[in-house]
Kinase-like protein (Wolfiporia cocos), 280 residues
Amino acid sequence: DLVGQFIDQGRLKLVDTLGSGSNGVVFLAIDTTSSPQYPTYYAVKCLIKADKGSHLHDVQQQEIAHHMRCSAHSNVITLHRVVEEHFYLFLVLDYCSGGDFFQFLFEGGIPRGDDALVKKLFLQIIDGVEACHQMGIYHRDIKPENILVNESGTRVFLSDFGLSTGRAFSRTYGAGSSYYMSPECIGIHGPITPYSTRANDVWALGVILTAMISGHNPWRRATYTDECYRAYLQDQDFLYRTLPISSGANDILQRIFTSDPSRRITIPFLRLKIMQVDTF
């Protein structure tokens, strides 16, 4: 447990644990050079430093490089610097006191029927993802837990580039979280065809949009063995009939949840459709 430790030549003190995942622990840190009356806080992601030459080392360096490249966008959480100490890598990030988007949605951060807030926040998520794509970075793990929220619940930021790739097409199947994976990423078309990582990110955006407007995910896993996904394949209006969504939202979701990734809606067109819809 590193709580109470100083890093970055004493500039940062780790004061609490914010969360932990498979690839690291995130601490709350206070900037010891900031005013005691108005202290500056950071989120610090701690990784155990991998051995040089190992696959994990390459993955860690790729996460840092990809995040740094996208960090300037206003809807990507800022990665300020990386501190190497002893056995650890510390990624110094902006701290979002509003927590993550999963918690925000679960606690009713978007009142049912607040179309303006859905539109405002989802457009910000789209903008963050598109900025990454324009940099040649594809996130592959877009989910509410990897989106951070400011204190007032008015701004959101894409985070955690641990599974990101610079490849527009990939044969790494099963990358991401099952609820948000496209069918082609899961690998239902077999191991022969590489999938579009860009279109895979769009699919994940559709799952998030469904949760934002209805309070439910559309299915657990986009495979034929999933009862809800199978029902959707058999009836494209399945979500419209079973969830509290508008016909306009249904049209958008159908354009996202097409099993043919080459026909899936692009992010610029998705943004246009979101801006045009009257109610979700």
